[in-house]
Fold this protein.
Amino acid sequence: MSCLRIWSTGLAALLLSTGLAACSGGSDKVVNIYSSRHYNQDDELYKAFTDKTGIQVNVIEGKDAELIERIQSEGANSPADVLITVDAGRLWQAESKGLFQPVQSSVLTAGLPDDLRDPDGRWFGFARRARVIIYNKAKVQPSQLSTYQALANPEWRGKLCMRSSDNIYNQSLVAATIATQGEAATEEWIKGLTANFARPPQGNDTAQIKAVAEGVCDVAVVNHYYVARLLESKEASDREIASKVGVFFPRPTHVNVSGAGVATNAPHKENAVAFLEFLASPDGQRYFTQGTYEYPAKANTAEDAVVQSFGPFEAAPVNVDVYGANNAEAVKIMDRAGWR
């Protein structure tokens, strides 16, 4: 179990750094993790790692941008060993600011697909997140659906719900499309999407699912695990909402990642690498994805049952590194097209 777990918002940097130092007690058997993941299941992950290695886990939780900024401001004195984020675009941003160092590990390169990690080993994706089309079962047949690009067709005029353009998931989807379709085709596609919005973009992915279930729109684009959460919710009202929508994997399907890298100034680099290697192991993959409803990054790893029920999909052949590299252009295209 982690000996220190802090939510960083509203706490002074001094409290955070001294807290980590006090918790480690000067021992080398410690790893300090800054994480934007906020799952209770991660406590089991940290405990399993400690049980296996004897390395104590200290955790600071916060939002992606906040943690990236904190590591920057802490500079060479940062206690951070590992940064975990929930989008490849965020990983790329941290990389571009020089916050990750290259890691040479045969365990990581052999266990994780090339397209889910930085080519230079500065960060690695450990869980996959599919961005799917959801549809109202009473209004839409799966045979009417095909690709993300087809959602720009006139038949979906006034029938599409989406989050705002400042959402990193949507930005990464557009960035990936730039890589495969080019800037001009991507901009035409986005213009078609915005023309089909049933309402101004608003809310999170769960709000899009509810809008589809309530008939505000016929289709929406969301991350798959939001549907899984509603299906597995203790609230009957959530399960009823999920029962009204279907999950469709576009051909091919855009995949993002939850990932991590070793901080440039990591005071416990060997322990940090050991933690990443644990995440790539069968046990680590199980703890990292079971209960969070993500797909494992490592091939032939068991999936959560509700996620498995969605069926197979074909991931788009794009290295997730381009999500960050193309982010600025994606935002410009979305802005020009009127996606707010």
Summary: Residues 130-254+312-336 form a domain with the D-Maltodextrin-Binding Protein; domain 2 fold (CATH 3.40.190.10). Residues 168-181 form the longest helix (14 residues). The radius of gyration is 20 Å. The chain has two domains: 4-128+256-304, 130-254+312-336.
